[in-house]
Predict the structure.
Amino acid sequence: MARPRSYDPDTVLDALISQFWEKGFDATSTRDLVEATHLFKASLYGAFGDKRAMYRAALGRYIDREVEAAYAMLSEGNGVDAIDALFSRVVEEIRQGGGRWGCFLCNASSDVAPFNEVIAARVAEAFARFTEGFAHALSRTARYADSTTARQTKAASLMAHYVGMRVMARGGAGADVLQAIRDDALREVGDT
């Protein structure tokens, strides 16, 4: 008979997310993961597999939680206000002293995706869902409600601005720089 797990898998996944998000895949050691999760190496490997499998599980949980939360945010109320709220949240995180790790998904797109087809596919799928969220918000604006082509183009532009903000935040950009990027991203979103 198998022994029952003596840990909460969600808590362990959150610890894995924190380690990989902060340090990236290559700089995160197995020892870092063992210390962060408070599991023995054998238990960690038994539960998740190798380090790459741990990374996939952590990224999957992050995407399921954060991308869907952003999509929900972009689905609420007025489209202009929803987009503004999402971009403003990034700026506010930096003003409050957080957000310096950037976005785990954005980090994964440059850290691991170029070298791993499975992660690349997962990142592309998540970016597409995020872009779909922007398009959904734009469909509730006067300027983009009636033009699918214009809406898709602007949604891709907003996605690029968002990823750029997150990457620049990780690189140390201040709130004023991110505010300027936010302002540029929102230009023409609400115009009629």
About this structure: The mean pLDDT is 92. Residues 51-74 form the longest helix (24 residues). Residues 62-186 form one domain. The CA atoms of residues 11 and 37 lie 8 Å apart.
